[in-house]
Amino acid sequence: LPMMREMYVAQDRETAFIESQPFLEGKYKAYAEWGQDKALPGEVSLAHHGILFLDEFCEFDKRVLDQLREPLEQGSITISRARRTVCYPSRFQLVAAMNPCPCGYYGDPSGRCRCTAQRITRYMDRISGPLIDRIDLQIYLGPVDSAALNPKIPCGESSSTVRCRVKHARAAQYSRFGEINARVATDVLEKRSQLNPDAHQFLIESMRTLRFSARAYYRILRLARTIADLSASEYIESQHITESIHYRYLDRVSV
To answer: What is the pLDDT of residues 179-216, one digit of tens each?
Structure first.
């Protein structure tokens, strides 16, 4: 990506190994095109085995966003310049945030949004269909009720409780596949995911009704397997498929 900010160089060569996962935040107003002789790693490579957070997702140039498709699919990115072609590792977790429209109030109960349908469409069109296809969790978050900001109100499960459930889910994935669900080949995933026949039929019918792509099929299946693991379920049931589909918000609203 042409969003390179700086190279991170360890000061002490004896401790040059990264001991914590990287977290990088891309800025849509802070990127520059590099010359023909430059083939340096950008932020998608610096975020390798870490998190790349992109705020105001729709404000990025569409050409920049489309360059995320290769690393999201392959876990690496190829940069070609006049004098060289290099391939950098870029297996990262993409976390992005965006407003539902240019003013940010589309769908707000207050009715404050004044954006036209055409303006909202132009805004959302900056995210291409193939890129949306590669994003597994697409969730709409409504405005926060002021009452929920009261620190005395319970806010759900504790981090330690969730951490324990995640550890058990990862252990189940390693026992089944020898690695986590995210890195399992599609053919192995389909053969050994233990999909209930009724759930499989429901998935096929949903694919036809919602006109999902073949890529989305495997991503829904992979996510459903993870949801089942978090529920300590040996088999993928219909409710796991339903929840996985529910998370594809942008796909569903575009149908």
So the answer is: 999 999 999 999 999 999 999 999 999 999 999 999 99
Task: List CB contacts of 59: < 8 A, sequence separation 6 or more.
Answer: 28, 29
> Cα separation of 118 and 221, whole Å?
34
Q: How far is CA 14 from the centre of its chain?
A: 34
Residue 48, pLDDT above cutoff 70: yes
Which residue type is seen at 188?
A: V
Widest distance between CA atoms in the chain: 61
Q: What do you get for the CA distance between the two ends of the chain, in Å?
A: 30
CA distances from 219 to 14, 62, 90, 111, 255 (A): 41, 23, 19, 35, 18
Q: Give the Cα separation of 25 and 101 in Å (integer).
A: 22
Q: Which pair of tokens denotes residue 185?
A: 């080949």
Q: What are the E-state strand segments in 90-222?
A: 93-96
Torsion of CA 161, 167, 170, 171, to 10 degrees: -130
Render pLDDT for 92-117 as a digit per residue (tens, 0 to 9). 999 999 999 999 999 888 889 999 99
How many whole angstroms separate alpha carbon 8 and alpha carbon 81? 22
Q: Are the CB atoms for 218 and 189 separated by under 8 Å? A: yes
Task: Please write down the HEC assignment for all residues of 105-118.
Answer: CCCCCCCCCCCCHH
Q: Show the beta-strand stretches assigned E in the chain.
A: 23-26, 51-54, 76-80, 85-89, 93-96
CB 22 within 8 A of CB 49: yes
